[in-house]
Specification:
Strand content: 25-35%
Membrane topology: Peripheral membrane protein
Helix content: 25-40%
Domain SHS2: 21-216
Number of strands: 18
Radius of gyration: 24 Å
Distance between the termini: 46 Å
Strand order of the largest sheet: 3-2-1-6-11
Order of helices and strands: EEEEEHEEHEEEHEHHEEEHHEEHHEHEHH
Subunit structure: Self-interacts. Interacts with FtsZ.
Number of helices: 12
Function: Cell division protein that is involved in the assembly of the Z ring. May serve as a membrane anchor for the Z ring.
Structural class: alpha+beta
Protein name: Cell division protein FtsA
Largest sheet: 5 strands, mixed
């Protein structure tokens, strides 16, 4: 239910004011922490980019205790997070207390809900928008799942859809469609538990596909319809944007590391050597000289006196391509089953570390029958050179998030009573009396 949602507690960054933000990307193969100062931006920029991120602290390291976005070993995850956050803290010269963290675990999924409230002919006020968003709670998701994002994707006045901002308009009935992104509660609680062991609070949880889309899509793409595919180490996430709003999100527990494991198993090499082969020589499509190009590989467990094996690039491609086709087919089938293939228009954007694979855009173009391009972080300056690639799209999107989170539904916080028999002052008075009698 939305009343038990884990929706953002993050305060939107104020126009014309600077703000500090710390983001933490907990992946299956890498963990990255960025501390940035959001400074008001001058001149034109992408929609929602009211501030420019000045990076003052950057930490990066291998992941541990995390598999497919799920915490599998609390102690190892804690140590890996501590190391990366400590690196960023030393670079920035500050101590971090809370972070914006991404979520890929917990069978990430999305649904669209609609609700309406009566206006009785008066002007739409912010309180009316709050009422209709709260009304969505009556048609929310199952109890074992918690909401990460509740994003209004369109308002309607008296049944007339396409209203972007109804405030100040008059009508009898105000309706709203809300895209609700949710995940299993226990998976998110384990992420929160790992951070609490590092003495860090969760300032906001952010769905990985939403972050990737914010980082890599331009305004026209988001308006016309586009799907953003983030191919990470052990997960692949999909987000669909239409009319400038996120309308769909999904995640698959398969990614680039599975390609590496396929190479290691079939060519009998170590995982480290398999990753090197994939990065340097890997391709999804066969080239003209692949049969004659020979690569030397050292068999797993071989000593320095043994001679290496020789394989052709064609053999390496035959190992890589089936796994990539499996990922693309799974994306296509899920989107067709939910009707999102039509809503996404004619365009796909590929990002994430595994999207750097040679020939991937062309293979995706053939299999998905859509225009495909590679996406890199946009609208975020000041990132270190090694963080400007597609592997860091999620981090860049989380830096954009404080600038756009004001459009979300946020669970109302209970007001804290200061007076009365059970208020704050009464309870403090009782404590003082009991302590000094």
């Amino acid at each position: 239910m939305m009343t038990s949602a884990m929706t953002a507690r993050l305060k939107p960054v104020q126009p014309g004011r600077s703000s500090l933000v710390t983001v933490l990307d907990i992946g299956s193969t890498k963990i990255c922490c960025v501390i940035a100062r959001l400074v008001p931006r001058e001149g034109r920029a992408l929609r929602g980019r009211t501030h420019m991120a000045e990076i003052i602290g950057f930490g990066y390291g291998p992941s541990a205790g995390v598999k497919s976005g799920v915490v599998t070993d609390l102690d190892k995850a804690e140590q890996a997070i501590r190391s990366v956050v400590g690196m960023a803290e030393r670079a920035a010269g500050i101590t971090v207390q809370s972070v914006v963290v991404n979520v890929t675990a917990g069978r990430l999924g999305s649904e669209t809900f609609s609700a309406s409230v009566s206006l009785d002919g008066h002007e739409v006020e912010p309180s009316d928008i709050s009422r209709v968003l709260i009304a969505v709670n009556d048609r929310s998701v199952r109890d074992e799942r918690s909401i990460i994002h509740a994003l209004p994707i369109g308002y309607a006045l008296d049944g007339q859809k396409g209203v972007r901002d109804p405030r100040g308009m008059v009508g009898e009935t105000l309706g709203v469609d809300v895209a609700v992104i949710s995940a299993e509660t226990l998976a998110m609680r384990n992420i929160e538990l790992a951070l609490n062991k590092c003495h860090l609070e969760v300032e906001a949880l952010m769905a990985t596909p939403y972050a990737s889309g914010l980082a890599t899509l331009v305004d026209d793409e988001a308006d016309l319809g586009v799907a953003c595919v983030d191919m990470g180490g052990a997960t692949t996430t999909v987000s669909v944007f239409n009319e400038g709003h996120l309308v769909y999100a999904d995640a698959l527990a398969i990614g680039g590391h599975h390609i590496t494991l396929d190479i290691a198993r079939q060519l009998s090499v170590s995982v480290a050597d398999a990753e090197r082969l994939k990065t340097l020589y890997g391709s999804c499509l066969q080239g003209q000289t692949d049969e004659t190009d020979v690569i030397t590989v050292m068999p797993i467990g071989a000593n320095s006196h043994e001679s290496p094996n020789s394989i052709s690039r064609e053999m390496l491609t035959r190992v890589i391509r089936p796994r990539v086709e499996e990922i693309l087919e799974a994306i296509r089938d899920r989107m067709q089953a939910t009707g999102m293939m039509d809503i996404s228009g004619r365009r796909f954007v590929l990002t994430g570390g595994a999207s750097d694979l040679t020939g991937l855009p062309e293979l995706a173009r053939r299999m998905l029958a859509r225009n495909v391009r590679n996406g890199r972080p946009l609208g975020v300056s000041g990132l270190p050179d090694r963080a400007k690639g597609p592997a860091f799209a999620t981090v860049a999107g989380m830096l954009v998030y404080p600038q756009v989170c004001g459009t979300e539904y946020v669970q109302p916080r209970p007001t804290r009573k200061l007076t009365g028999s059970d208020g704050y002052f009464a309870r403090v008075g009782s404590w003082l009396k009991s302590g000094f009698v």
